[in-house]
Amino acid sequence: MEVLFIEIFTDFKFKLDKEQVTNTLKNYSYILNIKKIMPIYNSLLPILYEYVKPLGVFNIEKNIDLHNMYKYEYIIPCIVSIGSDIDKKTNYYFSQKKIEEGLVLNAMATSYLFNVASQLFRCIYVKTSNANLGLSCRISPGDNYLPIKYQKYILYKLNKNNTFKININKNYVISPAHSMAYIYMADKKIPINKKDHNCSECQGRNTCSMRKDLV
């Protein structure tokens, strides 16, 4: 398979997991009236739609850098983001003491970010499966396989000139806040499957509200 140029996607479906959002917000029951979640959720849907700017970026390239994963021929660095405007809107609610609206909008934005990542995975899957390449599950810096410093490596690969206005600080925290950087490994030795993420291998699996319990 030839190494591809960087692929950029912005045409994502607007989809949320309402149950996922609700489960996330139950953690804030001490300051959030659970009965108000759905009315607030419904009122904020058009605001979320207006303020998000989804972006997905990936590249399929020869694996020459990750020596601890030398057995895989290709590496696929990825970035997903829904932009900074939604962070500003969320922070605005908090600054106006509209805590409930801020919490609900933040949870909705996080759910949408994960959905964008899932949609991007399907794009990657089509390309790799057509080349008879199987994919590893998503590997995020800070998980068992990849040190957190690789956040910077991924951004260097895909956002070298800050084309997408996604930044990283000295503690490897990415901004805008609703952004993620991660990789897949690809190889003909990996069975072709549609499993995007294995929550059982994530260090944050015990506290993550986005966890898929059946993996």
Give structural notes.
This protein is of the alpha+beta class. The protein has a single domain (7-201), classed as NADH Oxidase, CATH 3.40.109.40. Helices cover 35% and strands 15% of the residues. The protein has five helices and eight strands, in the order βααβββααβαβββ. The chain has helices spanning 18-25, 37-51, 85-95, 99-130, 150-158, and strands at residues 7-9, 55-58, 61-62, 74-81, 134-135, 167-168, 174-175, 179-187. Strands 1, 2, 3, 4, 5 and 8 form a six-stranded antiparallel beta sheet that branches. A hairpin with a 5-residue loop joins strand 6 and strand 7 (174-175). Helix 1 (18-25) packs across helix 4 (99-130). It is elongated and about 50 Å long. The protein starts with 6 loop residues before the first strand and ends in a 28-residue tail after the last strand.
List the helices and strands and how they pair.
Blueprint: E1 7-9, H1 18-25, H2 37-51, E2 55-58, E3 61-62, E4 74-81, H3 85-95, H4 99-130, E5 134-135, H5 150-158, E6 167-168, E7 174-175, E8 179-187
Antiparallel strand pairs: 1-2, 2-4, 3-4, 4-8, 5-8, 6-7
Organism: Clostridium algifaecis
Protein name: 5-methyltetrahydrofolate--homocysteine methyltransferase
InterPro entries: VitB12-dep_Met_synth_activ_sf (IPR037010)
